[in-house]
């Protein structure tokens, strides 16, 4: 049986690696032969490696995924194209009503399985890779995406809020993990690193607490000390120790976290 080949293009390395890992589970027969960090490199590598399937991030420096796709569909034998996007649900509706397939970052196995099934069916039927995808299709999709972005944009006088952090790339021993922020119990800064405490252990990141505070959803993560941020849904309650310090008690864990005076007001109603 002929080995099928794929290329992944995304300007974020950890998301390239994450999608490759998900594909190994969802489609083990597929071989990722190349990964690109931008659209220009993606085009070059596609020319060199001739993959059967390409996964294209929409937003990349140099050339967007749509720009790359427009070049590919002009060829006589283009690869099958799947777009990968971080756009919100409004923009995803544009994909739902177009002829192209897409994955929403970070791709879940359940959603990836559907894409894999669609690609396998097309490959078995020997359908043209560019069926239904033309330069006009891509231009219409780009216009829809632009309209969706405008529909949810903040007024011109108010800057759009920065997106909250959803995933963390962390070191654990000699391995690197991609961690959802929903798994985090608390963050604690050390000399050179920030520790990320999870139910199954501790990982390390280089991002300082001050930067994390700017990127985390303040409704879900509470800073209780200059060196500690805790996930609100893991807080069981508070108590005072023998020195009069307020201590946060965590659900299902023995350690307790000190609340500094600057953050005591956060717990006044508890």
TrEMBL record:
Keyword entries, A-Z: DNA-binding, Phosphoprotein
GO BP of this protein: regulation of DNA-templated transcription
GO molecular function, one term: transcription cis-regulatory region binding
Domain of life: Bacteria
GO CC annotation terms, alphabetical: cytosol; protein-DNA complex
Keyword 4Fe-4S in record: no
Domain HTH LytTR-type, residue spans: 168-270
Modified residues (4-aspartylphosphate): 57
Domain Response regulatory: 5-120
Protein name as annotated: Response regulator
The organism of origin for this protein: Rugamonas rivuli
Species lineage: Bacteria, Pseudomonadati, Pseudomonadota, Betaproteobacteria, Burkholderiales
